[in-house]
Amino acid sequence: MNQDEALTAEEVARLLKVSRGTVYALKDKGELPSFLVGRKLRFTRKAVQEYIERDQPLGENPGREVPFVTAAHQPESFVICGQDIILDALSNYMNQAGVPSLRSYVGSYDALTALYKDEVQLASSHLWDGETDTYNVPFVRRLLPGVPAVVVNLTYRTQGFYVAKGNPLGLKTWEDLARPGIRIVNREKGAGSRILLDEHLRTAGINPQELEGYDNEVQSHIAVASTVARGRADVAVGSEKIARQVDGLDFVPLQKERYDLVFKKKDIDTRPVRALMGILETGILKEEFSSLGGYDTTNMGKIMWMG
């Protein structure tokens, strides 16, 4: 990835998981260098990555858990919960369709519990269940007990290892993480990648507390990828698309995951959900992301489960 690539303020906001206003504030304070192309403000990817590597705190905590923006705070809004940038694009299309939409950047487990508590109207999930070798539905049943729900596919992504360029340690399997001296950096509890790791360690009979760095938690794919790229860890679990955005990394593919949207069945005929399904079924979001690396949008909009 060309580190001199010019990014818009919106693209930087997506990478840092903050608002555009926060990006402008960082620029004004001199913490995030920028330049003008004509009258358009632009940032280099290198500058953004260097900001992440400095690990400076932000008011909206990029790379860390961002507090919920809930329906209680914005009663007229449709709140979409999850971390992938495809959800930012979905939110934009919802707004264009006349449905006020807000984003809450938290992991899959917390997204489902927020949906159960009526704090959000739409959760995203990529939670793998090791007992059944299936995605999302077992967790929807557990975390939304007694609540009829609908699971709709958004995309498929590939999960695997972030490793240093050339994979010098030859890390290829989940069992390799238990080799002496291997340092990992972990995602926060509730993140889909963290649950994927924990489930594979459990099925392999590996005690996670024996892994060096297991308790070293960060809150985003780009944060764990950056940690490996800087040599502060040997390996992390994350999605393929982020590996393409960070220099000095290779990606070891391990598992294709299903990334779904979940909403309550009682809302299926509401205007926001009808607008949501319309966006998924008309193909405008599919067209936008099908050409990007790391997304398989073949089944976008397909109902995977209803119960």
Write the layout of secondary structure elements.
Elements lengths: L5 E2 L1 H8 L3 H9 L6 E3 L2 E5 H10 L23 E4 L3 H12 L4 E4 L3 H9 L5 E4 L2 E2 L4 E2 L1 H7 L5 E16 L21 E2 L4 H13 L12 E2 L2 H9 L5 E5 H4 L5 E16 L6 H12 L1 H7 L12 E4 L1
Parallel strand pairs: 4-5, 4-6, 10-11
Antiparallel strand pairs: 1-3, 2-3, 6-13, 7-8, 9-12, 9-13, 9-14
InterPro entries: DNA-bd_dom_put_sf, HTH_17, PBP_domain, SinI_DNA-bd
Keywords: DNA-binding
Protein name: DNA-binding domain, excisionase family protein
Strand content: 15-25%
What is the residue-mean pLDDT, rounded to a whole number? 88
Distance between the ends? 43 Å
Share of helix among residues? 25-40%
User: How many H/I helices?
Assistant: 11
What do these coordinates show?
The chain has about 300 residues and is of the alpha+beta class. The protein has three domains: about 5-55; about 80-155 and about 260-305, D-Maltodextrin-Binding Protein, domain 2; about 160-255, D-Maltodextrin-Binding Protein, domain 2, CATH 3.40.190. Helices cover about 35% and strands about 25% of the residues.
Quick summary of this structure?
This is DNA-binding domain, excisionase family protein. Helices cover 33% and strands 23% of the residues.
For the structure shown, list the relevant keywords.
307 residues; DNA-binding domain, excisionase family protein; globular; 3 domains; DNA binding; three-stranded antiparallel β-sheet; D-Maltodextrin-Binding Protein, domain 2; seven-stranded mixed β-sheet; alpha+beta
